[in-house]
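re: the backbone from monday

yeah here it is again, tokenized this time
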């Protein structure tokens, strides 16, 4: 089992409607395994090379440009790792 350092998660807004969190990763840092309890939108601040570990042992890599966005529904389970060679940052907005 690979031991990685955690990314830095900074909550910017947390009210009755949304939670906005900025995630900053050095290369190789991770979020840790988690299940999303809310629908959410992710917008990269920098180019992001996301290495996604998924249930069952699968992985996939997704590269996102700054300012792009994607959304997912609650229930997604994964671990997000900076799979690139540069620091990366994205902002996640959870819809409560």
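seq for it, each position gets an aa:
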């Amino acid at each position: 089992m690979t031991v990685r350092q955690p990314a830095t998660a900074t909550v910017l807004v947390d009210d009755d409607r949304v939670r906005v969190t900025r995630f900053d990763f050095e290369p190789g840092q991770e979020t840790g395994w988690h299940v999303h309890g809310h629908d959410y939108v992710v917008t990269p601040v920098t180019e992001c090379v996301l290495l996604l570990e998924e249930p069952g042992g699968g992985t996939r890599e997704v590269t996102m440009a700054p300012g792009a966005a994607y959304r997912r529904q609650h229930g997604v389970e994964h671990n997000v790792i900076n799979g690139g060679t540069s620091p990366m940052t994205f902002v996640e907005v959870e819809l409560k």
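The chain has no helices and nine strands. The radius of gyration is 13 Å.
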